[in-house]
């Protein structure tokens, strides 16, 4: 491992006995293997011999026999139980299976998963494309927002790319249209607006290059890095971009606001949660979360 510290040492997967239980557990054990992490499987509900036997049967199918796996059974409110478990078990990554709408084949995040992404103290991975057999991760998109936690998120994206063997990492800088501050009325103002756009893109790319420069070369080896500036609404734009380029994984900063107004007026990650383009990895600064 080229990193001094593994950011995801302990993973929690909260499971239900749904039709996708087997495929979700097989995918989760695969992720734990690549991250060299301990895996805790938590079911919020009654423990029965039938349920226990089913989990044992599924775990016996995994290709990774040396994993450190613990199965827990607890009763109570799912949000409270999982949130508490993330704190008491020092969880670094919570994995949640996202659901698929029938007929129109779009993925969405249910109310429990949405609340957990806001409440938990750790990073979150929303799976919409679990697979029984491994499908290699070829392309990762990560946000390059001008925000305090962005360097942490970009560093995590490089770690994930290395762990999963992804050869392509695209850092997307979303630039708000209002920053152009030029009203296009004719060819002259159009030219001026385009010049402003190029300057903004250059400024954002330079800022991101400074972040990437601080990442050890060994962590970037074998990864093709691309900077991409896009104009539009934050959250929506990067989600659309990830869908267009068919990214296998989208990595984002955790939402920085959780107040009532932020729930009324969607922002950033809420646009993505409403229509997931691909698997979503939300990076949360655990230290900051525990000190809020």
From TrEMBL:
InterPro entries: Rossmann-like_a/b/a_fold (IPR014729), UspA (IPR006016). Residues 58-126 form the UspA domain. It comes from the Bacteria. Transmembrane segments: none annotated. Belongs to the universal stress protein A family. PANTHER family: STRESS RESPONSE PROTEIN NHAX (PTHR46268), UNIVERSAL STRESS PROTEIN UP12 (PTHR46268:SF6). This is UspA domain-containing protein. It comes from Cellulophaga geojensis KL-A.
